[in-house]
Structure formats: structure tokens, C-alpha cells
Amino acid sequence: MDVTPTPAASSASPEPGAAVLRAPQPLPEPRRLGVLSRLAPEPMKVVLNWGRRYSLWVFNFGLACCAIEFIAASMARHDFIRLGVIPFAPGPRQADLMVVSGTVTDKMAPAVKRLYEQMPEPKYVISFGACSNCGGPYWDSYAVTKGVDQIIPVDVYVPGCPPRPEALLQGILKLQEKIASESLSARYGRAPEPSTAQLRSGLVPPPGPKDPR
């Protein structure tokens, strides 16, 4: 029997409750993908884009006759729910996609912008019809906004006066292709810090000192 004392046995036994120092263990080598690592998809990017692509809650901002074609696209004959699009969200705060269908007037433009700002990120916009794209046959009217993209960003334009429901289905497919290839770093990159003048612009000035009288 080998009775050669080991370093641990030759040292004095630690007192109860005392910390015991152990030699650091070497870490295993990290696994690498080799030369194909640059072609491997980012897991979170793929999963998040896939989830947004097939779970679009739609907020229909119907302003004119194009809204009827949107309703037709959501009915049983065309049934865009099979594409992962859920129509008639309870409100803008629960919606991912806004479909602006119809003539946008200057009087209605602030309401469109306000409801768009209430939508949570990430949010997308489809401009449905010639009136929403550029004003349509009323482009020279003093009361018509020359395209909804003048007040909110638009992702997909669907032309027509009015477009058929199949055109809206094609626009949804184009939007889903855009979402599938979306870069999270580009979309959610850190925005430059606003200046003090930008933060104060458009705000209500503070009340002045009260009149002692």
C-alpha cells in the first residue's frame, strides 16, 4: 500500500468554516463553426423576425373607398389570416401594422400621425391605394395631403384606384419579406442624443410669475 503523503494530506487540515482555496481548472476550448461561421444566421434575429412576420395585428385606418377592398381581403374568399395577419386590432396600442386606405386630408393628417405614434415598436405601415400614396385624383386639392408618407414613414406602397384585394395580399407578402431580412442593429441602433433646443421645441412654455395683485 502506497503511504506517500500528498500535498493536501501533508498540510494542516483547515478549521471548520474556513475557506479552502483550490487550483483553477482549465476551461474547455470554445466550439467554433469554422469558415462557414460568417454564413450562419443569428438565432435571435431569425426567431424575432419570424415571430413578427407571421403575427401582424392590423390597425385599419380606413378613410375612403379603399377601406372596402381591405375588408374584402379579410373576408373568407381571400382570407389574409392564412398569411399570419390578424385584422381589426382593438386599437393602435395593440397593433403592429397600420394600413392607411383612402384619401388623407390635411384635417385628418394629425389623427393619422397621433395614432401611428401610439403603436408600439416595431411597427409597419402599408399605404393602400393611389389616394394614400400620392393624393390620387384629388392630388391638386387644397385640402388633400399629397401622400401619407409626408407625415409617417411607409414600408410598402400598394398602387391602384382602388386596388383589388389580391394587391393587398401581394403587399403583405412584400412586407413579410422585408421583415424576414430586417436587421435589428440597423432598426434599433442608438439614435443621436437630441439637443436642448430640440427638446424644448414645440413645448408649452412654463407659466410666468403670478401677478401680486
Automatic annotation (TrEMBL):
* Family affiliation: Belongs to the complex I 20 kDa subunit family.
Q: Which cofactor does it need?
A: [4Fe-4S] cluster
Q: What class of enzyme is it?
A: translocase
Its membrane topology, per UniProt?
A: Peripheral membrane protein
Record-linked InterPro entries: NADH_UbQ_OxRdtase-like_20kDa, NADH_UQ_OxRdtase_20Kd_su
Q: What is its main location?
A: membrane
What does this protein do, in the record's words? Answer: NDH-1 shuttles electrons from NADH, via FMN and iron-sulfur (Fe-S) centers, to quinones in the respiratory chain. The immediate electron acceptor for the enzyme in this species is believed to be a menaquinone. Couples the redox reaction to proton translocation (for every two electrons transferred, four hydrogen ions are translocated across the cytoplasmic membrane), and thus conserves the redox energy in a proton gradient.
**Binding positions ([4Fe-4S] cluster):** C65, C66, C131, C161
- From the Swiss-Prot or TrEMBL record, give the protein name: NADH-quinone oxidoreductase subunit B
| Compositional bias per record (Pro residues), positions renumbered to this chain | 204-213
Source superkingdom? Bacteria
Organism in which the protein naturally occurs: Streptomyces tremellae
Q: Which reaction does it catalyse?
A: a quinone + NADH + 5 H(+)(in) = a quinol + NAD(+) + 4 H(+)(out)
List the subcellular locations.
Cell membrane
Q: Which SUPFAM superfamilies match?
A: HydA/Nqo6-like (SSF56770)
Record's cofactor remark: Binds 1 [4Fe-4S] cluster.
Enzyme Commission number(s) of this protein: 7.1.1.-
- On whether Metal-binding is a keyword of this UniProt record, the answer is yes
